[in-house]
Amino acid sequence: MFQRRWVRRGLTAGALVVALGVLTSAGGELWTRGTAHGHVYSEADVPAAPVAIVLGAQVYDDGSPSPFLAARLDIAKRLLDAGKVRAILISGDHSRWEYDEPGNSEVYLVARGVPAAQIALDYAGFDTYDSCVRAKQIFGVREAIVVTQTYHLDRAVALCRTLGINATGVGDESVKIYKEPWRNSVVRERGAVVKAVADVITRRDPVFLGRQETTVQEALTR
């Protein structure tokens, strides 16, 4: 009898945890979609802004960007070429010396004709929240077009807007051809939304803040 009672209590507690997780996830989805609503555009229709923020993604051991990151960089280049932005801020992970998302992204863009003077690099954009906080507090970005894949776009725009950046967003779907990575990313996004809600509620400091950077302002004067 005693054992059965503890089993029932354990099952009840487990059910409550699951229910809380479902409610948090659903609430997070409503928040991201509601906050991003009206601020997500096609590449052709997005209003001009001073800066495109390219959020980081995987680079390979040879330094080449993954298809997901390359697609983001290609959009940013086209926005620059079209006069929709005047500078590109690449935010990504450079926590290890041998792994450098922003630096390799710059190499990719410069090789395709983007002037290095119009590129700024954030080496401590370890996640979307950190990238948005640092764009505002460290790089002085007040208005931007956020560039990422569509499954990630509502969360990215919602975070940046909530953290004080007048952000719009443009998303890529060309890499949907990589069906398994795309599907896995969509699934992971559900958990990432819950984390985003927690980050916004706690207003945690990014992993690394550091000193003020003037590279975005310098790029905008080119």
TrEMBL record:
One Pfam family it belongs to: DUF218
InterPro entries attached to this UniProt entry: Cell_Envelope_Assoc, DUF218
Domain of life of the source: Bacteria
DUF218 domain boundaries: 51-167
Matching PANTHER family: INNER MEMBRANE PROTEIN, PROBABLE PERMEASE, INTEGRAL MEMBRANE PROTEIN
Protein name: YdcF family protein
Organism: Paractinoplanes ovalisporus
